[in-house]
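Incident review: delayed structure delivery

Summary: a single-chain prediction request sat in the queue longer than the usual turnaround. Root cause was a stuck worker, restarted by the on-call engineer. No data loss occurred. The affected request and its eventual output are reproduced below so the record is complete for anyone auditing the incident later.

Affected input:
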Amino acid sequence: MKKDFKFKHITSPSHYAETGGDSQVCDVLNELGQNVLKSSVPMVGGKDLVTQSYDLIKHFEPIIPRVLNPSQYISVDTFIVDLEKWWTKRFGYSPKTFQKRRNLLVDMVNHPVFPIDLLNLNPDQIDAYIQYESLNYSKETARDGKDAIRNKLKAIFMVAQAQGIDYSKWNIRMPSRSKPKHKIVPLPSVVYEMVHFKYSTDPYVNALYQYLCLHGFVVGPRVASEFSILRLKDVHIEEGYLHFYQPKVDEYRMSPLEPEIMCMSNRKSFKNWVDKWRPKVENQYSKDYVYLHPDGKPFTEQGLRKQLNTHIKPVWQQFHPYCMRDWCAIARLIRTKVLSNSFDFYEVSDWFEHSDISVTQHYTKDTKKYYMMASFDWIRAVLKSQKCLGEVNSLESENSKNGVLPIDFSPVEEAKPPWVRTL
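Output delivered after worker restart:
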């Protein structure tokens, strides 16, 4: 049965009457009573509330502790183990980032002059350590410079945060970032030599590092971290692109590539590697990784970095795996200059899928200088076959004396992918 509600009459000011008359309020709660609205969750109070709260804390605290109590640990090693769990589970940060900070913490604990006690953080000791490191780093190599000190402070602040310490009151200033260094990359003639150098008498080992050189310089990955986990499912040969995971940014990157590096049978292409060389060592441990150690097992990140340095440094002493990414960014920016007579940072930024154009500019800081030394398409020059011999130009004259093949590095006509139909 529908209940009729009574409305209380409230006299409104005269100006309300001009816009609709007197106001009326429906007082439903007083008509129905206060017991109509009840919480669906029973209220707990007194002793029961304390018991319930204790049970919840007892259940969740061992899994994701809010803070770590340093007095409960008898050694730094056990504390660092729990610190990793706290860092990765409570905040969801990358275990790889923690491992880097863990190594820095170990160095600070074992410092010969100002060792840091992680179980009893002392701001004065930390400040003395930072001041000592700032004054005693190698300015020639920039080792343990500003960026290293920043990373060490981040590691210390992580420990303080885990222990519930407000480190903002320590009055320790984070050093500013160091200025970008000049990018030292090999010229195309040197990269060409790396791609065709004889690294071993073992045919597979020789092919492995030749292919890694070409793919690394042309694709421009973070070589050790991204190529060590590259899978066959990431290589789309018929479509002409790679779609691979980037652990550093936790995203996938799609890289459309030239047909010479994707599918051509007379080049060191991904198709040749997958069809011809990889099956020679593939076994039950290989899974679907693209690059395999001679024993058939996939590379670890550290293992791949070490092997690249070991094999390629004899060809070019200044080599380090990350220079492949720097070279690719510079080479592709020079290509935009060769094809359109202007440096197109945005095109290269889109190709690398950088989050900001300033990242691209950081990679290509010295591009104009390299363009003055070699004003032609670097990518095309490196992708040329060994049979494409020509006259020695000024860049290769010095190398030709040392037995390097005299390759013509002048620009060539763009090759069309085999899947593109010519009208």
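Verification: Residues 70-170 form one domain.
Action items: add queue-age alerting; document worker restart procedure.
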